[in-house]
Amino acid sequence: MLEVLQAGGWLMLPILACSVAAMAIVLERLWTLRRRRIMPDKLVNQVFQLHARNQLTSERIAEIRDGSPLGRMLTAGLVNRNHSREVMKEAINDTGRQVVADMERYLNTLATIASVTPLLGLLGTVFGMIDIFGVIMDAGVGNPGVLAGGISKALITTAAGLSVAIPALMFHRYLDSRVTKLTIAMEEQALRLVEVIKGQREGTA
Questions:
Q1: What does pTM read for this prediction?
Q2: What is the C-alpha to C-alpha distance for residues 203 and 205, in angstroms, rounded to an integer?
Q3: 29 vs 70: CA distance, rounded Å
Q4: Cα–Cα distance between 78 and 86 in angstroms, integer?
Q5: Cα separation of 136 and 52, whole Å?
Q6: How far apart are the C-alpha atoms of 50 and 60, rounded to whole Å?
Q7: What do you get for the CA distance between the two ends of the chain, in Å?
Q8: DSSP three-state, residue 130
Q9: Cα distances (Å, whole numbers) of residue 13 to 9, 35, 124, 143, 169
């Protein structure tokens, strides 16, 4: 591994740094975006029961808010439950945008890594080819083995850049899709809460 890094030149260092950053982001987002953490089971039904029993105290609402991203959206509506349906929905939408922004954290960085690492690899290959042509100008083309070895070393950075970019792009698409699905599900639950609070729909026990 060390020989490969040395053969690729100094541009292998930023590519290696990008690979470490991408791995850290992917692992952190996979852990953070677990469905049971974002949307705890039966949370909405628990809120329905507390509302039906008139037990939605400030302390209970604070517990719900701090428990999960879905809880943040629900409590945005709960604190405005004495206002109109439109006010509740607006409060939920405002909080929802903040929740989604938190869920999308680092995804732009991951996308940037997926875009930049192939360019770093290509830049390293260009520098390597420049060095090879410098050798040709000095020593000619009498030793094809030397030239082939030089070209293979020049291509190492491109291979390394693609090796980082491809999985980074795949995980970015996957995580972005997961955020979208979770967002839609949370919006459905929050709107369901509004309808129940305003008496337009029955809650589930």
A1: 0.83
A2: 6
A3: 17
A4: 13
A5: 84
A6: 9
A7: 59
A8: helix
A9: 8, 36, 11, 30, 20
Residue listed under structure tokens 């980074």: 168
Range from 83-97, 121-135, 154-168 carrying the lowest mean pLDDT = 121-135
d(CA 195, CA 204): 12
- Distance (Å, whole) CA 58 – CA 66: 12
Nearest to 47 by CA among 178, 147, 196: 196
pLDDT tens digits, one per residue of 88-124: 999 999 999 999 999 999 999 999 999 999 999 998 8
Report in angstroms the alpha-carbon separations of 160 from 14, 132, 133.
Answer: 11, 19, 22
For the chain, the residue count is 205
pLDDT(135) > 70: no
Which helix or strand (DSSP H or E) is residue 20 part of? helix 12-32
CB 111 within 8 A of CB 172: yes
Q: Specify the amino acid at residue 12.
A: M
Which tokens is 21 given?
């950053």
Closest alpha carbon to 176 in 117, 114, 94, 92: 114
- Mean pLDDT for 126-134 is 77
User: Which of 104-108, 121-125, 132-136, 145-149 has the highest average model confidence (pLDDT)?
Assistant: 104-108
The dihedral formed by the CA atoms of 57, 60, 66 and 67, expressed in degrees to the nearest 10: -150
